[in-house]
Amino acid sequence: MATRITELPNELTANIDSVDAAGIVRLLRQSDAQLFAGWGAHPSINDAAILTKISCLAVKAATLLKENQQKEGENVFVFSGCGTSGRIAWICSRAYNRLLHHLGNKPCFHYLTSGGDVSLIISNELPEDDPPQGARDLEAITRDAQQVMFFGVTCGLSAPYVAGQIDYAMHQSKFTTVLIGFNPVTLARDTRIEKWHRTCKDVFLELEELSQRSEKAVVLNPIVGPEPITGSTRMKGGSMTEILLDTIFTTAFCQVFDIPLQQLIGSSNSPTLHTHSILSSSPTHTIRSHAVVGNRDTSKAAVPVFRHSPCDDHTTIASVIDSFTSVYQAAYRPVEGVASLLSLAADCLRHPNGHLYYVGANTFGILGLIDSSEMVDTYGSAPEEVRGFVVGGWRDCGNQEGDLSDKGPFFRISHAHFSEDVLPRLSAHDCVIFLGSSLAGCDGSGLLGNVTERVLSSPAHCGLLIVADMQTTEAALAHLADRRYCSTVLLRLPFYSALGKEPLFAGFALKLVLNAISTGANVMKGRVYGNTMINLTVANDKLFFRSVDIISDLSACHSEEARDSLLRAIYQQDHVEKHQLLPVSSHITAATQQNMVIPLAILLASGQCSTVAEAVQVISEARSLRTLVK
User: Fold this and answer.
1) Residue from 552, 530, 547 nearest 125 by CA
2) What residues does 153 pair with on adjacent strands?
3) Quick check: 481 and 455 in contact, CB under 8 A?
4) What pTM was computed for the model?
């Protein structure tokens, strides 16, 4: 069976573990270029076939929003995913609801994430393996809606929770069902899941077939290539999800509320959109050909049969995507500055008692929270090692379950909690990065009170990351800067749009840079070999089998031996015959109670250690996990 593209190693970053901080940033910049350029011979976001799908989805979204605006419908939009995809679903639904509120309209966007809101903060991957629960969650949140536009996001086309929702949604007449992922459907995960009679591939192929004869089924899967850290779809997968959703709904908002696109993307060359430009258009013809748009590829990939003539006009969609391209380039321009923050974080995380903290307001604070939440599963970090804090805490997060502060210490996320729980314990082994904006009211700097001063006066190393437009000078931000910061980085974007104080493009830029900082810090800490993560958490069915593949590849052994070594590491026993016939879910439950499972298994599978006890001793004495593999 062919390996999914999202699970392949990226040849661009094969030596990411052997370059310096600036080199890491440059390699990530090259990898992220594939978001727009594509990978291999597969269609990218700039192909006419993909642009047509995005255009038609924007038409549909605008139609439903217009009905809601005119009080003619109770239409809802639902974004769903697991892990990072669920967190992107959350932050996008929050942003669009805030835009609607700003424009005087009723919120109508919802998100679903496997495991509920606790999964926004902590590692909670096992609920991803429950397709029936996914369907139940979707049915409950859409029960009273007239029309539903559902976006199920699974970057690798591998999440059973989302597959269960797609299976439900595509058989409901009131649904328009959209699958977002970044593999060809033929490479979707084809493994049987406990509690279910189907596979992801079965469901997604059915949706793809339905999309050839119905405009209410869409597979939106531009190929972005392998991740810079193999399988870490929080990076390009998460970024492309944000690009697709923001492109669709930025366009739809402009159309419905008669907002000139220039107001959002700051380009005098962008078309001025008015509501009548698409909403008064009637279905006139079937799209089967591909018009040439600029220098975009016009390959003859199959296009679903949509009968909305505006879908063939890619001008607006292309303008928004070009804006994201410009923002990507600007985000990576200060290579040395981003590398300095990366080095600062890495130096602290290398220490056994070191920590990395992000502190910011509104969307910026939430992006820091999201980035930190991904460290446990991806790199096996302790949950307290990297944390994010949001000015205002849960009150400003717009999550569905409200204040979760009483769920435990890692749910205490406000700046007040930071002052109470973290500030008194800051040491020279800690790094605090403040996330800010040049736009008044968006950075929340005035709400931090004396927190910033107290951090700067502490032994901790402090960084400042500011997002601004090209017209903002460093002198204009002098009141935010302080020579006590170890590093201050200014990301100058070609434009800074904040409709209703929602920094749509600035948030994308910040995500790229935060991903670079946390990824690079873990690479420099030694948690990556080549570009393979070697200490991921075995937290669900997908990660169990990914772990077997990693152990097999790095130990040069057969998959059966790799699986046996993985079970020895999970159960901390040299003989695991009695565990071999247990369901995978039992192995996962046991694995989440252990640390260093993958490094232990690699030592056993490679023959470097003959017993579990010996492997545990070797790991306890190692300076970095990477040295164990070498």
Assistant:
1) 547
2) 180
3) no
4) 0.90
